[in-house]
């Protein structure tokens, strides 16, 4: 339990440090090129942020010796005070709201009088970041030497016996080479951890501020088990999921009024597609949840960026060449991302499923549907399933073609699904659980008949 507490404390500190650094970087981002002292401070904070992120990955890496990791965590907790001091500085800095107009030369002198841009403030920030990195350096050193420590101890034993070294020169040479290889392997391991973190940051940047996985996980947890089976086993869905590329309508639109269970249904469809992905190596799945409460979830560029981010897990080439734009924080255009997505999928021969919920919750849903149709109508095998409250004229025209290029399903919650939920609720209530089967059936009938497909 004590070890678990230490691990939790170290992880919490690293998370806090990363959050504080990112907040400071966001605050000074627009002014990092304005003046030399701001640039130095920004670079110092950025270096600390990278150190914290690398440590957060490394302490969870299972190949490291656990005793060494525990010592590294102790070293991390020694930085607690300096991280909290940095957090206090952030609180003071954020009190001052900045404006873009303060870049003007005429206002530069005034800006330097503000607390965040005073030389004393910037110097203190550099001092705190340097102090924190010093406290963390031991943790990094411990992890870096761990992999080669055993070999080095073996070399020390060999060196103690000169006669043995003379007689076994060939073996010694091999041991030395092993030590060098092991050390290089350790360096590559550390570099690999840093590379993985960079890829995670690139994927997060492409996805934008809205993370669809959180909405999906919440929806999946809240849905009642076994609901939606009628849809998953239906011929239209099975055809969309498994049918030959040239004979299958690539667009599937589920239409239903609010409360009919479309979001729960699409979460089940996502799970079915992911099961297909696990069983077939040339398959990829990406999904997106639109929401009127989240502006980023209504942007087709964020949607397609999220698709690229998710599919890059099974198709790493999807991220090729994006590093430069990421470093400059220059997002590719929607057209560029669509072209990248379709061309990489075609080159990899991937059957790709894109599932999107509640397109109607976008203030301007036409651009979202247009983007989805462009992807579905490309030369790649891209299949799109989305939910909405009403049919779009573009989809209607596709269904009228011979053969149809889209499938439309108008739905309301089936009584079977409604009854499953009602039964579960009755079992949850102590005062209802003891009712007779006949009374329970009566309750189910009344509630189901009044549900009106919702």
Description of the molecule:
The chain is α/β, with parallel strands linked by helices and 454 residues long. It has helices spanning 2-28, 36-58, 66-77, 80-93, 105-112, 119-159, 162-167, 169-207, 212-222, 229-232, 235-242, 262-279, 300-311, 323-328, 334-348, 365-376, 393-400, 415-428, 430-433, 437-450; strands at 251-255, 283-289, 351-357, 382-388, 406-410. A 5-stranded parallel beta sheet has the order 2-3-4-1-5, sandwiched between helices. Helix 2 (36-58) packs across helix 6. It is globular, with a radius of gyration of 29 Å. The two termini are 48 Å apart.
Query: Regions with pLDDT < 50 over 5+ consecutive residues?
Result: 101-106, 147-162
Radius of gyration: 29 Å
Straight-line N-to-C gap: 48 Å
Backbone shape: globular
Gist of the model:
By secondary structure, the chain is α/β, with parallel strands linked by helices.
Break the fold down into its secondary structure elements and pairings.
Layout: H1 2-28, H2 36-58, H3 66-77, H4 80-93, H5 105-112, H6 119-159, H7 162-167, H8 169-207, H9 212-222, H10 229-232, H11 235-242, E1 251-255, H12 262-279, E2 283-289, H13 300-311, H14 323-328, H15 334-348, E3 351-357, H16 365-376, E4 382-388, H17 393-400, E5 406-410, H18 415-428, H19 430-433, H20 437-450
Parallel strand pairs: 1-4, 1-5, 2-3, 3-4
Helix pairs in contact: 1-2, 1-3, 1-4, 2-6, 2-8, 3-6, 4-6, 6-8, 8-13, 9-12, 13-15, 18-20
